[in-house]
Amino acid sequence: MKVGDHVVYVPDGTKGVIVEVQGDLYHIIWEDHFSSWEQGERLRKPEAQR
Questions:
Q1: What is the mean pLDDT of the chain?
Q2: Is 41 helix (H, G, I), strand (E, B) or coil?
Q3: Residue range 27-46, pLDDT digits in tens
């Protein structure tokens, strides 16, 4: 995953965008404009829309 990728927070399905990466930590801006640092294992890329 890299800066600019859209991601989903696995525990609750919240969507966000990666704005910074430091190792396995990802700084995410969430859809509610909150931001946080999350471990890669808690994130996934959203399913491709059809």
A1: 93
A2: helix
A3: 999 999 999 999 999 999 99
Q: What is the pLDDT of residue 50?
A: 44
Residue 13: Cβ within 10 Å count: 8
Structure tokens at 42: 């808690």
Residues with Cβ within 8 Å of 40's Cβ and at least 6 positions away in sequence, in order, are: 1, 24, 25, 26
Sign of dihedral through CA atoms 43, 45, 13, 17?
Answer: positive
Burial class of residue 7, CB neighbours in 10 A (0-12, 13-18, 19+)? buried
Cβ-proximal residues to 12 (8 Å cutoff; 6+ apart), any chain: none
Both tokens of 29, joined, read 């801006």
Enumerate the domain spans of the chain. 6-42
